[in-house]
Amino acid sequence: MTTTRTALSRGALALYAVAAVAAAATGSSAFFLWARGISTGLAIAAALPPSLLLGFIALASRFLCNALPLRSASRASIAIAHAGSAAAASGLWVLLWKSWVPALNRQFAATVAPDYSLLFGLGVVLYLAAVAVHYLVLEIEALREAEDEVLRYRVLAREAELRAFKAQVDPHFLFNSLNAIASMCGSRPLEAREMAQRLADFFRLILRLGALERITLAEEIDLVQRYLAIEQVRFGERLTTHVNVDEGAARCMVPPLLLQPLVENAVRHGVASMVEGGTIDITATLEDHMLRILIDNPADPDRADARGEGIGIENARGRLSAVSDGRAMLQAREAEGQFRVVIELPR
Amino acid sequence: MIRVVIVDDELPARELLREFLAADDDCEIVAECANGFEAVKAVAQHDPDLLLLDIQMPKLDGFEVLELLDRSPIVVFVTAHDEHALRAFEVHALDYLLKPLSSERFSAVMSRVKRLAGQHDRQPVSGLATSLRAKPLQRIVVRGEDGAIQVVPVSRLDYIEAADDAIRITTAGIKLRKQQPISEIAAQLDPGRFVRIHRAYVVNIERIEKIELYAKDSRVAILRDGTRLPVSRSGYQRLKELL
Predict the structure, then answer these.
(1) Rg of chain B on CA atoms, in Å
(2) Which chain A residue is nearest to residue B103, measuring alpha carbons?
(3) Which helix (H) or strand (E) holds A343?
(4) Overall number of domains in chain A
(5) In sequence order, what E strands does chain B have?
(6) pLDDT in tens, A161-197
(7) Which of A3, A78, A90, A292 is spaced 20 to 30 Å from A106 by Cα?
(8) Do A177 and A122 have their domain in common?
(9) In which domain, by residue range, is A122 found?
(10) E-state strands within B123-227
(11) Which of B16, B33, B57, B156 to mutate: most A Cβ within 10 Å?
(12) What is the extent of the structural domain holding B82?
């Protein structure tokens, strides 16, 4: 689509350039003749054919402009190339005048005698004007392409964001929670109402925090605890949680929804894989300007879907390195039925 | 009277099923199970008419539970995951209910169960969901003579040998017997990690130490632990392609 548009406008622009240079050459050279006492009609008739030729030569200069872009070619080579070609083009145009004028004089029994050095100067000026216009057009095109590029990147970034956001919360968490609400409606309606409220608060918070650049660790932990409170209803005694965040750590800034998917992993692939359940331990400390977060949970080494959690960890690692210029670290290791994620983020 | 076993690892989900079933005078819950092990035991013990079965559970998933049943009742899956519906169809489940559960849908299924309960013959679910399995088998479930259930991740598998219409699985020197044709398990395993080196042998290629020429056209695979397994000519071809 865009290429066709550019090609069309390029063709049209070329024709305009030929016409403009030819018209300018005709007008100005005819004026010089008229000033020397030649009638207007004859002056124009004399100037038109060589001027048309100059128009086409000036058009050809765009190939030279393409080959010597302003941004990359050296100043000297640009100046020399265009000066040389301007002289050659103008020489050609003067040559045509010289062969054309005698024929004209014979035909109309006139005495047209142009000042050839003046015409040469005129040819050089017009040719260089055409070069300037070509460079202008090239610049405008480059600018438009750069704008397209920026737009394309913006769309891509937006898509990536949306994908990341969707990946934050497992939809089955929602389905299972709704099922739990449905189950409590009959026997424990007050608890059902409370659970619905918690679920709504959780999703509202996800949307709000997700839109921010950075949040405090305290806010993130609040989100995680709301999530765990909902899972608690589903898992009952099988799920225990310990959260321990020291004061300095709580005030640290972190990218939003950094821990939430990791804690979700700890529930889905960890505690949920154990018949007897287990404890999720979340610890955050700030020491020597280093924020250190640990997430520990038991996990069945023989669980079937051991690969799914890798994606969540990769995502978290990618986001962490993006916000810290690669200075942060995220490690996941599993040994003797315990899964541990370690995050270290310098302040 | 329809005798029902409920299997779900979440208490609220079991409560909902219990509530739905309580409204039906023709149904009786004979067992409630919170994991696959309990489910296998409960079905063997009670021989129910209907199994309401969750899929994602610790240790054994719903499909693995079915694999371990000698007599399979009518099965209705109850899950939040819609991606297993095709496999459920292949193991002849009567229906596949999605959470959150709809009571209308549930009572429609129950009336079908009542119609079919008399005619259902309790065959073991064999040839279990092999072709529709999206990814290769990740673990093998085996029930021993004493009824104890073993879960063997395929990474711990050394080799499998055919024994009549059953297989013997060797893992860290222990042999486990399972009633399943070797061709069936061979088709389920990751072809990049397990090779059928002989009509009667499938081997984990990570366990192979070397291949030796034994006689003309006859080779033997020597495993890390010293075990020697015969390699047929076509088995050798398959090995060569992989390595």
Answers:
(1) 21
(2) A182
(3) strand A338-346
(4) 2
(5) 2-7, 27-33, 50-53, 74-79, 95-98, 139-143, 149-153, 159-163, 166-171, 174-178, 194-198, 201-204, 208-215, 218-223, 228-231
(6) 666 666 567 888 999 999 999 999 988 999 999 999 9
(7) A90
(8) no
(9) 2-163
(10) 139-143, 149-153, 159-163, 166-171, 174-178, 194-198, 201-204, 208-215, 218-223
(11) B16
(12) 2-116
Query: Tokens representing B159?
Result: 């080799």
Which residue does chain A place closest to B20, by CA atoms? Answer: A183
Nearest CA in chain B to A274: B58
Instruction: Tell me which chain A residue has its CA closest to the CA of residue B81.
Output: A172
Residues of A in contact with B34 (CB under 8 A): 275
The reply to whether residue B59 touches residue A275, judged by beta carbons under 8 angstroms, is yes
- Give the pLDDT score at A1: 39
Q: What is the CATH number of the domain that holds B205?
A: 2.40.50.1020
Span B42-63, pLDDT tens digits: 999 999 999 999 999 988 999 9
- Does the beta-carbon distance from B13 to A179 stay under 8 Å? yes
Q: Do B16 and A176 touch (CB under 8 A)?
A: no
Residue ending a domain, choose from B81, B116, B151:
B116
| Measured distance CA(A201)–CA(A222) in Å, rounded | 11
Report chain A's C-alpha Rg in angstroms. Answer: 38
Taking a C-beta distance cutoff of 8 angstroms, is the pair A245, A218 a contact? yes
> In B, what residues contact A, Cβ < 8 A?
9-13, 15-16, 19, 34-35, 37, 56, 58-59, 61, 80-81, 98-101, 138-139, 151-153
Residue reference for tokens 């640009």: A78
Tokens coding B156: 């711990």
Task: Dump strand ranges (E) for A23-146.
Answer: none
Q: Name the pTM for this structure.
A: 0.68
CATH number, residue A276:
3.30.565.10
